[in-house]
Amino acid sequence: MSIKIALAGNPNCGKTTLFNALTGSNQFVGNWPGVTVEKKEGKLKWDKEVTIMDLPGIYSLSPYTLEEVVARNYLITDRPDAILNIVDGTNIERNLYLSTQIMELGIPVVMAINMMDLVRKSGDQINVDKLSKKLGCPVVEISALKGDGIKEAANKAVELAKKKALTKPVHEFSKDAEEIIAAVESKLTGIKEEQKRFFAIKLLEKDDKIAAQMKSVPDVSDEIRRMEDAFDDDTESIITNERYTYISSIIGDCCQKASGGKKLTLSDKIDRIVTNRFLALPIFAVIMYIVYYVSVTTVGGIATDWANDGVFGDGWYLAGIGRSAYEEDAGEYGDAETIINAFVDESGDEDLAAAVDAESEDYDPAAAIEAVKAYAATVADDAEVTYVVQDEETMAEEDETANGADLKAAVEVYEKWNATAPDNADYGIWIPGIPAFLESALDAANCADWLRGLIMDGIVAGVGAVLGFVPQILILFIFLAFLEGCGYMARIAFIMDRIFRKFGLSGKSFIPMLIGSGCGVPGIMASRTIENDRDRKMTIMTTTFIPCGAKLPFIAMVAGAIFGGASWVAPSAYFLGIAAIICSGIILKKTKLFAGDPAPFVMELPAYHLPTVGSVLRSMWERGWSFIKKAGTIILLSTIVIWFTTYFGFVDGAFQMLSEDQIDYSILATIGKAISWIFIPQGFGNWQATVASVTGLVAKENIVGTMGILYGGQEGVSVYAAMAASFTAVSGYAFLAFNLLCAPCFAAMGAIKREMNNTKWFWIAIGYQCGFAYLVALVINQIGRLFTGAGFGIGTVVAIVIIIAFIYLLFRPYKESETLQVATGK
Ligand SMILES: Nc1nc2c(ncn2[C@@H]2O[C@H](COP(=O)(O)OP(=O)(O)OP(=O)(O)O)[C@@H](O)[C@H]2O)c(=O)[nH]1
Ligand SMILES: [Mg+2]
Description:
GTP-binding, binds magnesium ion, two-stranded antiparallel ribbon, binds guanosine-5'-triphosphate, iron transport, FeoB_Cyto, alpha/beta, Rossmann fold, cell inner membrane, 6-stranded mixed beta sheet
């Protein structure tokens, strides 16, 4: 016989902890209310006939939120064979409110008083026998965390379910109330005897959703009026009051507080400081600084660099030993080589140039040194050459000069190194990165070019883009799991909520945004901690507006090429990102998508406690792994598509694979040329900018590289000069704004998909971001042109219409403002 047992109780009372212990599963546990939002099923470890059902936590059987509906519907329609009512022993009085309702369902109930480890520690006493008599159901003491008593509790529930020993409520309300309830009960038809009390009370409470669960609904308006007249209150409050009256009448008998209930607990003491009016924000800032510093800047940054430049780059040194020595030597040698090459170029001597070409097949270091030395002897000490050095990240170019004396010094270094660049392997234990390793393997196997391209630029680059973020994400998740587990996260929400609520976000949105300034992927993942669905969606949609680390080189490139390195460009990008978040929040919360029942911000602050290492690691791994799985597939596919369209195309009518400098023949370029007109209103309707924006979707760092290839083709014109020639200041800034605000990279989109867990919402988010970016760029360009003297045109009119619409959306009244005082802060 299969038996179903439901775990029901208040939020944060330990249902999921118990569920995991009973079924051996790994459901997510967190120290704040509202962790579980869907019901979860599992089999009892020692009896596979028994199914255990974990439900979202609820405060009562009158549903307000989605979670409460899920839990209630399960309890009254699916009717489990028994209910294990979990009660938080440290907070027994409030928890019993739900218990009195559960007893009325006409289902066998066992009450498990959880957190007994804490109760005992505080010295409080709970008299289980008395409680059991007063409530009419068996009561057991457990500690889900320590595993005490859980077997007995589950077995007891199974036993009752098998006996079908329905729990009859023994609690009683005042005589008048009971009379009216009895009158309603007698009117009910088609409802089992044991369920009558539940339905009668719900009808009296004017619960509008209960009718859907009944075949026929009697008219009870008479009874409601009688009750309201007799008690001079509305029925729902009357019944709530009756329940609490009953609970307080029994609680004194059953529970003794060690401190007489007056002593402040340790949690209360901590909260006095942590949520103090003046100290709360500074403490929060310090904690966030630490989280950010460790998970983005130091440990996380090192881990990401290691993953991206080491494992998925050239390679790395075991334990970092040898790295700095290598970098120093490689730098010294590189500088010398650059100066020598500059002079060799200047000399125009082709034999000499051939001799020093280290890339050539018959390169002979000894001969190179010979040739360079002979040449250097002919150069006067004060002869000068000018050469260009390029910054690897931003492609900024700078002129340097060297003279004959520098050349001689360079030749000495050149000779010292025997005209060969220092080799990584000589400095420590050098482990080649996966691409480097694969590349040499593919070379050895004489692999076809297209396959090699597919593997290296498509698959490895794609997988690398995903996995490169993993170490950082895991480090961040350890922190988040700890902050959640110990109970501080609930305080953060509490502290920040007043500010963020004003623009439609939750107090917990702050963390995703902060983290998002390092990398959008963990930022979006961090939005998991926001339990309210609307707030979470809103946060996911807007977090990537903040410039992440990968956008910085691109911002620097635009600043350098188009704005002559102006220092205001980078800060303005952050300002733009923050403004985009605030405006989006205000606008979106007034739309239908985000409207709905106002969800009042009720959140109790759970007691602080040290989370177990196991639960922190488990939570870290669960989130990290789900990122790898889900984000991995979408990113991999997308990178392969972009790779294919970038490196294949028609040259002279023949379809073929292209080399780097033939990108203008690629399919992507063809598409870019075909669609670049959509960016004409933004002022950058050229195909290079369009293609760069598309490759930016793989990784935002790519924008710089693509711009480099596409604008770097002209002889004698630097990339920066070519860019400066094809953008004006206004269209350049519009281009910057567009790429800053539009859909993030595939890795972040993968994270959005994962977190939204819903295709429609994924596209809404991406569509919103792109649309918003498009309009902002348009307005910047059109209005900018107006001010730079391009005159008034249709574009200007469109821009003005957009601005007016925007202002309207921003300031139009909020339809729910009367019912939603909490949310609007009015
Ligand atoms: N000290 C102690 N802590 C416990 C015990 N049981 C659960 N906890 C902690 O209480 C917190 C809440 O546990 P969960 O299992 O997530 O609670 P839940 O009832 O599923 O919460 P929701 O899903 O939000 O309704 C976690 O931090 C647990 O580690 C216990 O017996 N003793
Ligand atoms: Mg739970």
